[in-house]
Write a structure and sequence with these properties.
It contains ten helices and six strands, in the order βαβαβαααααβααββα. The chain has about 240 residues and is of the alpha/beta class. The protein has a six-stranded mixed β-sheet with strand order 3-2-4-1-5-6.
Amino acid sequence: MAAIYLIRHGQASFGSADYDQLSKKGEQQAQLLGEYWRARAQPSKFYCGDLLRHGQTLSGFNKGYQTSTVPMIIHSGFNEFDHVDILKKHQPQWQNFPKMSEDINKLQHPNKTFQKEFALALERWMFSDKHDEYKESWPQFKLRCIRALQNIIDQELATKRQLSANDDNAKKSKDILVFTSGGTISVIIQHILKLTNKELLMINQQVRNTSVTKLLFSEQMLSIDYLNNYSHLEQAGEDWVTFR
């Protein structure tokens, strides 16, 4: 049985004009995860979404893990949804997103205000029947994430079948790490556990930066071994645990 580890990116610049950039804390979170992974067997492969924060998280992980020998594949199927487009559709006056961020940051409680508006924008995107308003609709996003996961599984199983039955290396489990985002991870969890959209939203709100969700798969099954594990951050101290 093989394992896929879904890793959420480190802390980014949530609420700023350019979210797709790790903060200093986000870079260090990724490095902490890499250091934590040294006690494990070396992964056979890395997959990485093509957003900047995904690549930066992988780079930080490698810095902590101290390896450069694991092959890496860019897979845009693991990209996050377009939160800027979703927010603009929620509030049409926010067409100038940098100006929106600037205005919100002037408020007394900018983070709470942004979180509230973001939650409302997500609900509109997920539960509205006006799918054609968005660059990528909610059903399209879900299908993309599930296809990306199935693509990895199909490739790995096909490769294993091609190898000789007498090849002991082919029989060993191969760990695969996927550097992605919270929305993508939540959709995959929903798919496996057959959750409702409201239950998915609850999970999405709890997925920590650089948390790890472990999937197990074989020819006959796909299951979740554990989800949202961030013990590497807890070991470093409570201040390292972040949501956005």
